[in-house]
Amino acid sequence: MTLEELEKRIQVLEDLEEIKKLKVRYAKYIDDNFNVEKLGELFAEDAVWGGEAWGMFQGREAIKEYFAGMSKHMVFSCHRIVAPDITVEGKKAYGTWYGMNSGILSNGKGFWSSCLYIDEYKKINGQWLISSTKIHHFYRSPYEGGWAKERNMSLKVED
Predict the structure, then answer these.
(1) 134-148 pLDDT, tens per residue?
(2) CB of 138 within 8 A of CB of 114?
């Protein structure tokens, strides 16, 4: 193996670690009562975020606006994001993660959810950012009764 090949391999490993840290910060800032400013720092200007439960949001500002409204629906959440399967191709990367979340809605109901995150990333000015997150839920279920009784509850509380 040449020195150049070794440097490329090391760069990929460093990029993988930075992307993992990026996803951890994503979960941490959501669980910090939807820390909108910090969340916004994680997304590319033209990013896309969403899924069947929430709808799709295009652009960093639209994503921030969506998260800013979530605290009226969800008063507590605890995200666990595991099993990253990430491929780095230069200044772009893509991958999947499994997610599990438990939380409390503003109406006092507890919930469980499990999903697959389908992500794309890009490196801009030396920093990895999320360019796309598509969320496919396996279930969104009430704490009482769990996913065996109800697999697709709404996580939005109507006023």
Answers:
(1) 999 999 999 988 777
(2) yes
Both tokens of 81, joined, read 């994001």
Q: Are 137 and 52 in contact (CB under 8 A)?
A: yes
User: In this structure, are residues 132 and 119 in contact, taking their beta carbons and an 8 Å threshold?
Assistant: yes
Q: Are 63 and 46 in contact (CB under 8 A)?
A: no
Res 76: pLDDT: 94
Q: How big is the CA angle at 21 (ends 23 and 16), to the nearest 5 degrees?
A: 95
pTM beyond 0.85:
yes
The domains of the chain, with CATH numbers, are 3-149 (3.10.450.50)
* CA-closest candidate to residue 153, choices 118, 29, 145: 145
